[in-house]
């Protein structure tokens, strides 16, 4: 409850800072509350009807659902949002990004999708935490994810949020052979359609969803550069590439004098660390921000799946019913090595010391990796979002980070093992890399 003299700092879901002198709020003439610094400067979409309050000599009545208002104030007061620059750019984002692949209709019939109402509630709660970074893609829900984000975004101060989306995949089932890939034609068509669905006139980060072997890289990068110059996108980014592909992208845009990519969105978690071998080395050397997706490996790193316990619920349970459904982020239970369960056990042991869940330990480990700019989380409920957001107010000591590094370390194949060994006594430009330290 609000008490006399308590300073309330409230961020509305529209992203506006509340502030001002002491005001008396009359809740439909029944309850009078004293609150300081409570002047709401914009309407919200949190599910409460909070009207614009202006400093006047006479106080109007404001229709407020008090429990919801208190919850918003609580979230704001304990906001855990922290912010990082993306790569070498001047763009600043919350270190937790809300992924929206679960918004809208189910893809391929898999469970765990959110309808528009719940999706908007999740967006509201994320914004109330101070989160400003949203990630989507044209292919998520066949465009429905972008539409849901768009109907929410049009009611917010657009410049308060950083919106990233992607293109490459086929969005046309009518036989259009050019409706896939990273050609100039497909990219320009994709951005126009994404802008319509998102109900905005620009996208902050426009990412290629994967490398396209069929299209000349120069064509792709020149098209992205043109989109920056005409104001439809602010920055280009890439996703799901190998080390040599990423370095070729960097060298090509440098050679052509084009606007550089600022981010790499790559699967990265305690089970999937292979990108540390090359792609992340390129990111460190070239100043590219890393945006890990699937930080919990499709729910595997939540502790819901254990040794000799085949999943029956959620997406992993859905995959277990028909292992042909497995994806890079949602593996089949029968394919999991025992090492995965060693990782889960270690995370659980560490979590108990801090009063944290396995998922929170896995997310915290990612946040503390020096290559990470912002971790892309998903949520199918408000409770799940609250759990995922509660990772900024604590940290893992170095000893526990090392334990997680060691139990989750992937094998180092040739030629990486030989190269690292031969360079262990040379100038140490990668002192924080686990692979280098482990081979010393």
UniProtKB/TrEMBL annotation:
InterPro entries: AKR, AKR_Detox_Biosynth, NAD(P)_OxRdtase_dom_sf, NADP_OxRdtase_dom. The keyword Oxidoreductase applies. SUPFAM superfamilies: NAD(P)-linked oxidoreductase. Keywords: Oxidoreductase. GO terms for molecular function: oxidoreductase activity. GO terms for cellular component: cytosol. It comes from the Eukaryota. Residues 95-408 form the NADP-dependent oxidoreductase domain. Belongs to the aldo/keto reductase family. Aldo/keto reductase 2 subfamily. This is 4-deoxy-l-erythro-5-hexoseulose uronic acid reductase. The lineage of its organism: Eukaryota, Metazoa, Spiralia, Lophotrochozoa, Mollusca.
